[in-house]
Amino acid sequence: MKSDKINITFALPNLLPGGAERVMSYIAQNIDSRKFKSTLLIVGYSKDASYDIKNIDVVFLEKPRVSKGVVALFKYIQNHKPDILVSAIGHLNTVTAYFSLIFPKTIFIAREVNVLSVLANYENQGKSSPFDFISEKRFNFFNKVICQSQDMLDDFHKNFNIKKNKLVVINNPITDNFKVKNQKSKNEPIRFITVARFDLEKGHHRILEALSQVNFDFHYTLIGKGVLYDDIFKLIDLYNLKEKISHIPFTKEVEKYLAESDLYLQASYTEGFPNSIIESCMVGTPVLAIDAPGGINEIIYPDVNGKIVSNVGEFVSELENINSNFIFNAKAVSATVSDRYSRETILSKYEDLFTNVYDQRYSKK
Questions:
Q1: Where is the signal peptide (predicted)?
Q2: Beta-strand (E) ranges in the chain?
Q3: The sheet that has 263-266: what strands, in order across it?
Protein backbone atom coordinates (compact mmCIF):
# COMPACT_ATOMS: atom_id res chain seq x y z
CA MET A 1 0.00 0.00 0.00
CA LYS A 2 1.33 3.43 -0.95
CA SER A 3 2.20 5.89 1.83
CA ASP A 4 0.06 8.98 2.23
CA LYS A 5 3.20 11.01 1.51
CA ILE A 6 4.95 11.13 -1.85
CA ASN A 7 8.49 9.83 -1.35
CA ILE A 8 10.94 12.07 -3.26
CA THR A 9 14.71 11.75 -3.53
CA PHE A 10 16.62 14.82 -4.69
CA ALA A 11 20.00 13.76 -6.13
CA LEU A 12 23.05 15.99 -6.58
CA PRO A 13 26.71 15.31 -7.45
CA ASN A 14 27.88 17.26 -4.37
CA LEU A 15 27.03 20.07 -1.97
CA LEU A 16 29.84 22.39 -2.98
CA PRO A 17 28.96 26.09 -3.40
CA GLY A 18 26.82 26.55 -6.51
CA GLY A 19 23.44 27.69 -7.71
CA ALA A 20 22.08 24.22 -8.53
CA GLU A 21 23.25 22.82 -5.21
CA ARG A 22 21.70 25.67 -3.26
CA VAL A 23 18.36 25.64 -5.08
CA MET A 24 17.91 21.85 -5.08
CA SER A 25 18.77 21.50 -1.39
CA TYR A 26 16.45 24.42 -0.63
CA ILE A 27 13.53 22.85 -2.51
CA ALA A 28 14.16 19.49 -0.82
CA GLN A 29 14.03 21.08 2.63
CA ASN A 30 11.08 23.38 2.08
CA ILE A 31 8.41 21.54 0.13
CA ASP A 32 5.38 20.71 2.24
CA SER A 33 6.39 17.94 4.69
CA ARG A 34 2.72 17.02 5.15
CA LYS A 35 2.56 15.93 1.51
CA PHE A 36 6.12 14.89 0.72
CA LYS A 37 8.88 12.89 2.36
CA SER A 38 12.14 14.37 1.09
CA THR A 39 15.58 12.77 1.03
CA LEU A 40 18.69 14.54 -0.26
CA LEU A 41 21.07 12.11 -1.95
CA ILE A 42 24.62 13.37 -2.52
CA VAL A 43 27.11 11.39 -4.61
CA GLY A 44 30.06 13.29 -3.12
CA TYR A 45 31.64 13.65 0.30
CA SER A 46 29.96 14.87 3.47
CA LYS A 47 33.15 16.77 4.37
CA ASP A 48 32.67 19.00 1.30
CA ALA A 49 29.12 20.10 2.18
CA SER A 50 28.77 23.88 2.08
CA TYR A 51 25.08 23.97 3.02
CA ASP A 52 23.44 23.08 6.32
CA ILE A 53 20.57 20.67 5.69
CA LYS A 54 17.79 20.52 8.28
CA ASN A 55 14.64 18.48 8.88
CA ILE A 56 15.17 15.94 6.07
CA ASP A 57 17.28 12.81 5.60
CA VAL A 58 20.64 13.33 3.88
CA VAL A 59 22.55 10.43 2.34
CA PHE A 60 26.17 10.86 1.19
CA LEU A 61 27.52 8.13 -1.10
CA GLU A 62 31.05 9.41 -0.35
CA LYS A 63 32.29 9.09 -3.93
CA PRO A 64 34.76 11.45 -5.64
CA ARG A 65 32.68 11.86 -8.81
CA VAL A 66 29.48 10.68 -10.45
CA SER A 67 31.23 7.99 -12.54
CA LYS A 68 32.54 6.39 -9.34
CA GLY A 69 29.10 6.48 -7.73
CA VAL A 70 27.02 4.70 -10.38
CA VAL A 71 26.84 1.38 -8.53
CA ALA A 72 26.07 3.00 -5.17
CA LEU A 73 23.39 5.16 -6.78
CA PHE A 74 21.86 2.09 -8.42
CA LYS A 75 21.75 0.24 -5.09
CA TYR A 76 20.16 3.23 -3.38
CA ILE A 77 17.30 3.37 -5.88
CA GLN A 78 16.91 -0.41 -5.78
CA ASN A 79 16.70 -0.47 -1.97
CA HIS A 80 14.67 2.68 -1.29
CA LYS A 81 12.37 2.68 -4.33
CA PRO A 82 11.49 6.42 -4.31
CA ASP A 83 8.23 7.45 -5.95
CA ILE A 84 10.05 10.34 -7.61
CA LEU A 85 13.76 10.93 -8.19
CA VAL A 86 14.80 14.48 -9.11
CA SER A 87 18.38 14.88 -10.32
CA ALA A 88 20.38 17.89 -11.40
CA ILE A 89 23.50 18.68 -13.43
CA GLY A 90 24.66 17.01 -16.65
CA HIS A 91 26.64 13.87 -15.76
CA LEU A 92 24.27 12.83 -12.98
CA ASN A 93 21.27 13.45 -15.22
CA THR A 94 22.81 11.20 -17.84
CA VAL A 95 23.12 8.35 -15.33
CA THR A 96 19.63 8.74 -13.87
CA ALA A 97 18.09 8.99 -17.34
CA TYR A 98 19.27 5.50 -18.22
CA PHE A 99 18.41 4.18 -14.76
CA SER A 100 14.81 5.10 -15.58
CA LEU A 101 14.77 2.17 -18.01
CA ILE A 102 15.63 -0.21 -15.17
CA PHE A 103 13.30 1.28 -12.53
CA PRO A 104 10.00 1.91 -14.34
CA LYS A 105 8.04 2.35 -11.11
CA THR A 106 10.04 5.45 -10.15
CA ILE A 107 9.21 8.78 -11.81
CA PHE A 108 12.44 10.38 -13.03
CA ILE A 109 12.67 14.18 -13.30
CA ALA A 110 15.71 16.15 -14.45
CA ARG A 111 16.51 19.71 -13.53
CA GLU A 112 18.90 21.26 -16.03
CA VAL A 113 20.91 24.38 -15.29
CA ASN A 114 21.75 26.01 -18.61
CA VAL A 115 20.89 26.55 -22.27
CA LEU A 116 22.93 23.53 -23.30
CA SER A 117 23.31 24.12 -27.03
CA VAL A 118 24.93 27.50 -26.28
CA LEU A 119 26.95 26.32 -23.28
CA ALA A 120 28.56 23.59 -25.37
CA ASN A 121 30.38 26.26 -27.38
CA TYR A 122 32.23 27.39 -24.24
CA GLU A 123 32.66 24.11 -22.38
CA ASN A 124 33.80 21.97 -25.30
CA GLN A 125 35.36 24.68 -27.45
CA GLY A 126 33.86 23.03 -30.53
CA LYS A 127 35.23 19.56 -29.67
CA SER A 128 33.04 16.47 -29.83
CA SER A 129 33.11 13.29 -27.79
CA PRO A 130 31.85 9.73 -28.44
CA PHE A 131 29.70 10.18 -25.34
CA ASP A 132 27.90 13.25 -26.70
CA PHE A 133 25.21 11.13 -28.35
CA ILE A 134 24.48 9.24 -25.11
CA SER A 135 24.40 12.47 -23.14
CA GLU A 136 22.15 14.32 -25.57
CA LYS A 137 19.66 11.45 -25.72
CA ARG A 138 19.21 11.39 -21.93
CA PHE A 139 16.28 13.79 -22.03
CA ASN A 140 14.13 11.32 -23.93
CA PHE A 141 14.00 9.01 -20.91
CA PHE A 142 12.83 11.44 -18.25
CA ASN A 143 9.19 11.83 -17.32
CA LYS A 144 9.73 15.58 -17.00
CA VAL A 145 12.57 18.05 -17.52
CA ILE A 146 12.52 21.20 -15.38
CA CYS A 147 13.76 24.25 -17.27
CA GLN A 148 14.77 27.34 -15.34
CA SER A 149 13.74 29.74 -18.09
CA GLN A 150 11.68 29.89 -21.27
CA ASP A 151 14.95 30.12 -23.24
CA MET A 152 15.93 26.72 -21.85
CA LEU A 153 12.59 25.18 -22.75
CA ASP A 154 12.80 26.53 -26.31
CA ASP A 155 16.36 25.18 -26.62
CA PHE A 156 15.37 21.68 -25.48
CA HIS A 157 12.42 21.61 -27.85
CA LYS A 158 14.22 23.02 -30.88
CA ASN A 159 17.74 21.60 -30.54
CA PHE A 160 17.13 18.34 -28.65
CA ASN A 161 13.70 17.47 -30.10
CA ILE A 162 12.11 17.08 -26.67
CA LYS A 163 8.33 17.20 -26.73
CA LYS A 164 6.92 20.23 -24.99
CA ASN A 165 4.66 18.12 -22.80
CA LYS A 166 7.82 16.77 -21.13
CA LEU A 167 9.14 20.26 -20.41
CA VAL A 168 8.12 22.64 -17.63
CA VAL A 169 9.48 26.06 -16.70
CA ILE A 170 10.06 26.68 -13.00
CA ASN A 171 12.26 29.67 -12.22
CA ASN A 172 14.71 29.78 -9.34
CA PRO A 173 13.38 30.99 -5.98
CA ILE A 174 14.75 33.70 -3.74
CA THR A 175 16.16 31.40 -1.09
CA ASP A 176 17.07 33.95 1.58
CA ASN A 177 15.17 36.65 3.42
CA PHE A 178 16.81 39.56 1.65
CA LYS A 179 16.01 43.05 2.92
CA VAL A 180 15.60 46.03 0.62
CA LYS A 181 18.37 48.55 1.18
CA ASN A 182 17.56 52.11 2.16
CA GLN A 183 19.57 53.91 -0.51
CA LYS A 184 18.32 57.01 -2.31
CA SER A 185 21.45 57.99 -4.25
CA LYS A 186 24.46 56.21 -5.64
CA ASN A 187 27.82 56.01 -3.93
CA GLU A 188 30.67 58.31 -4.85
CA PRO A 189 32.52 56.81 -6.57
CA ILE A 190 29.88 54.48 -7.99
CA ARG A 191 30.20 50.84 -6.85
CA PHE A 192 29.81 47.85 -9.18
CA ILE A 193 29.60 44.14 -8.35
CA THR A 194 29.57 40.73 -10.05
CA VAL A 195 29.05 37.35 -8.35
CA ALA A 196 30.04 34.47 -10.65
CA ARG A 197 32.52 31.65 -10.97
CA PHE A 198 35.56 32.33 -13.14
CA ASP A 199 34.56 30.38 -16.27
CA LEU A 200 34.68 31.41 -19.91
CA GLU A 201 30.90 31.51 -20.39
CA LYS A 202 30.54 34.05 -17.55
CA GLY A 203 32.16 36.74 -19.69
CA HIS A 204 34.29 38.49 -17.05
CA HIS A 205 36.68 39.63 -19.76
CA ARG A 206 33.87 41.65 -21.40
CA ILE A 207 33.16 43.49 -18.16
CA LEU A 208 36.84 44.27 -17.61
CA GLU A 209 37.18 45.49 -21.19
CA ALA A 210 34.22 47.82 -20.67
CA LEU A 211 35.48 49.12 -17.32
CA SER A 212 38.86 49.90 -18.90
CA GLN A 213 37.09 52.32 -21.25
CA VAL A 214 34.91 54.37 -18.88
CA ASN A 215 35.80 57.97 -18.03
CA PHE A 216 34.81 58.13 -14.37
CA ASP A 217 35.97 56.76 -11.05
CA PHE A 218 34.44 53.55 -9.71
CA HIS A 219 35.02 50.56 -7.45
CA TYR A 220 34.29 47.02 -8.61
CA THR A 221 33.74 44.07 -6.24
CA LEU A 222 34.36 40.71 -7.87
CA ILE A 223 33.06 37.68 -5.94
CA GLY A 224 33.95 34.22 -7.18
CA LYS A 225 36.73 31.82 -8.07
CA GLY A 226 37.40 29.27 -10.78
CA VAL A 227 39.64 27.94 -13.51
CA LEU A 228 40.16 31.32 -15.20
CA TYR A 229 41.51 33.06 -12.10
CA ASP A 230 44.97 33.68 -13.60
CA ASP A 231 43.56 34.88 -16.93
CA ILE A 232 41.16 37.29 -15.26
CA PHE A 233 43.83 38.84 -13.06
CA LYS A 234 46.23 39.15 -15.98
CA LEU A 235 43.51 41.20 -17.69
CA ILE A 236 43.03 43.29 -14.57
CA ASP A 237 46.75 44.12 -14.61
CA LEU A 238 46.72 44.73 -18.38
CA TYR A 239 43.86 47.23 -18.04
CA ASN A 240 45.45 48.90 -14.96
CA LEU A 241 42.33 48.19 -12.89
CA LYS A 242 43.95 46.57 -9.86
CA GLU A 243 43.47 49.59 -7.58
CA LYS A 244 39.78 49.77 -8.47
CA ILE A 245 38.91 46.11 -7.80
CA SER A 246 38.30 44.08 -4.66
CA HIS A 247 38.27 40.30 -5.04
CA ILE A 248 36.42 37.99 -2.63
CA PRO A 249 36.78 34.28 -3.49
CA PHE A 250 33.82 33.13 -1.38
CA THR A 251 31.51 34.72 1.17
CA LYS A 252 28.31 33.93 2.99
CA GLU A 253 27.58 37.68 3.10
CA VAL A 254 26.61 38.16 -0.54
CA GLU A 255 23.54 40.16 0.50
CA LYS A 256 25.70 42.73 2.28
CA TYR A 257 27.97 43.25 -0.72
CA LEU A 258 25.02 43.47 -3.11
CA ALA A 259 23.34 46.07 -0.90
CA GLU A 260 26.52 48.15 -0.70
CA SER A 261 26.75 48.28 -4.50
CA ASP A 262 24.98 50.57 -6.96
CA LEU A 263 24.89 48.33 -10.03
CA TYR A 264 25.29 44.63 -10.75
CA LEU A 265 27.31 43.86 -13.91
CA GLN A 266 26.42 40.78 -15.98
CA ALA A 267 28.14 39.67 -19.19
CA SER A 268 27.57 35.91 -19.42
CA TYR A 269 27.24 34.33 -22.85
CA THR A 270 24.59 32.00 -21.45
CA GLU A 271 22.82 31.34 -18.16
CA GLY A 272 20.21 29.00 -16.78
CA PHE A 273 18.38 31.50 -14.64
CA PRO A 274 20.93 33.59 -12.74
CA ASN A 275 20.35 33.59 -8.99
CA SER A 276 22.75 36.48 -8.49
CA ILE A 277 20.66 38.81 -10.69
CA ILE A 278 17.47 37.98 -8.81
CA GLU A 279 19.21 38.47 -5.47
CA SER A 280 20.74 41.76 -6.55
CA CYS A 281 17.33 43.06 -7.60
CA MET A 282 15.79 41.77 -4.38
CA VAL A 283 18.04 43.99 -2.24
CA GLY A 284 17.34 46.90 -4.60
CA THR A 285 20.51 46.93 -6.71
CA PRO A 286 19.72 47.12 -10.46
CA VAL A 287 21.49 45.14 -13.19
CA LEU A 288 23.31 46.10 -16.38
CA ALA A 289 23.55 43.01 -18.60
CA ILE A 290 24.70 42.05 -22.06
CA ASP A 291 21.87 40.14 -23.71
CA ALA A 292 22.22 36.36 -23.62
CA PRO A 293 19.95 33.31 -23.49
CA GLY A 294 18.95 32.05 -20.07
CA GLY A 295 16.22 34.17 -18.54
CA ILE A 296 17.90 37.57 -18.40
CA ASN A 297 15.13 39.12 -20.50
CA GLU A 298 12.56 37.56 -18.16
CA ILE A 299 14.10 39.09 -15.03
CA ILE A 300 15.10 42.56 -16.21
CA TYR A 301 12.48 45.23 -16.82
CA PRO A 302 14.34 47.98 -18.74
CA ASP A 303 14.68 51.27 -16.83
CA VAL A 304 12.90 49.76 -13.80
CA ASN A 305 15.34 47.20 -12.41
CA GLY A 306 18.11 47.43 -14.97
CA LYS A 307 19.16 47.63 -18.60
CA ILE A 308 20.02 45.10 -21.30
CA VAL A 309 22.52 45.95 -24.04
CA SER A 310 23.85 44.06 -27.05
CA ASN A 311 27.64 44.37 -26.86
CA VAL A 312 30.62 45.81 -25.00
CA GLY A 313 30.38 49.17 -26.75
CA GLU A 314 26.79 49.65 -25.62
CA PHE A 315 27.78 48.40 -22.17
CA VAL A 316 30.37 51.20 -21.89
CA SER A 317 27.87 53.83 -23.06
CA GLU A 318 25.26 52.64 -20.57
CA LEU A 319 27.79 52.66 -17.73
CA GLU A 320 28.51 56.31 -18.57
CA ASN A 321 24.78 57.11 -18.69
CA ILE A 322 24.01 55.39 -15.40
CA ASN A 323 26.90 57.07 -13.63
CA SER A 324 25.76 60.53 -14.72
CA ASN A 325 22.02 59.91 -14.43
CA PHE A 326 21.19 57.22 -11.86
CA ILE A 327 17.42 56.69 -12.20
CA PHE A 328 16.81 53.52 -10.17
CA ASN A 329 14.79 53.32 -6.96
CA ALA A 330 15.72 50.47 -4.61
CA LYS A 331 12.14 49.64 -3.58
CA ALA A 332 10.93 49.67 -7.18
CA VAL A 333 13.82 47.41 -8.22
CA SER A 334 13.01 44.93 -5.44
CA ALA A 335 9.30 44.90 -6.25
CA THR A 336 9.99 43.53 -9.75
CA VAL A 337 11.22 40.19 -8.34
CA SER A 338 9.83 39.86 -4.80
CA ASP A 339 6.53 38.26 -5.81
CA ARG A 340 7.52 36.57 -9.06
CA TYR A 341 10.33 34.55 -7.47
CA SER A 342 9.23 34.33 -3.86
CA ARG A 343 9.65 31.03 -2.03
CA GLU A 344 5.87 30.64 -1.85
CA THR A 345 5.44 31.08 -5.61
CA ILE A 346 8.25 28.75 -6.66
CA LEU A 347 7.66 26.06 -4.02
CA SER A 348 4.02 25.92 -5.07
CA LYS A 349 5.06 25.24 -8.67
CA TYR A 350 7.37 22.41 -7.60
CA GLU A 351 4.70 20.89 -5.36
CA ASP A 352 2.13 21.06 -8.15
CA LEU A 353 4.54 19.35 -10.55
CA PHE A 354 5.34 16.52 -8.13
CA THR A 355 1.70 15.98 -7.22
CA ASN A 356 0.56 15.98 -10.84
CA VAL A 357 3.15 13.50 -12.13
CA TYR A 358 2.50 11.23 -9.14
CA ASP A 359 -1.29 11.34 -9.60
CA GLN A 360 -0.97 10.69 -13.32
CA ARG A 361 1.19 7.64 -12.67
CA TYR A 362 -0.80 6.08 -9.85
CA SER A 363 -4.28 7.02 -11.03
CA LYS A 364 -3.69 4.47 -13.77
CA LYS A 365 -3.00 1.68 -11.30
A1: none
A2: 6-12, 36-42, 57-60, 84-88, 107-111, 144-147, 167-169, 190-195, 218-223, 245-248, 263-266, 287-290, 306-309
A3: 245-248, 218-223, 190-195, 263-266, 287-290, 306-309
Buried b (16+ CB within 10 A) or exposed e, 96-125: bbebbeebeebbbbbbbbbbbebbbebeee
Residue ranges of alpha helices (H) inside 239-311 are 254-260, 275-283, 296-299
**Is the omega angle on the peptide bond into residue 189 within 30 degrees of 0, that is, cis?**
yes
Distant-in-sequence, close-in-space partners of 170: CB < 8 Å, separation ≥ 6: 146, 147, 148, 346, 349, 350, 353
Do 106 and 81 meet the contact criterion of CB atoms below 8 Å apart?
yes
Spatial distance between the Cα atoms of 337 and 173, rounded to a whole number of angstroms: 10
* pLDDT above 80: residue 274: yes
- Whether residue 15 contacts residue 89, with contact meaning beta carbons closer than 8 Å, is answered with no
Query: Which residues contact residue 212 at a Cβ distance below 8 angstroms, ignoring those fewer than 6 apart?
Result: 239, 240, 241
Quote the pLDDT of residue 1.
Answer: 44
Q: Which amino acid type is present at position 168?
A: V
List, in order of start, the domains of the chain with CATH numbers.
6-173+342-362 (3.40.50.2000), 190-338 (3.40.50.2000)
Radius of gyration of the chain (CA): 21
What pTM, to 2 d.p., does this model score?
A: 0.89
Q: What is the rounded average pLDDT of the residues 97-108?
A: 96
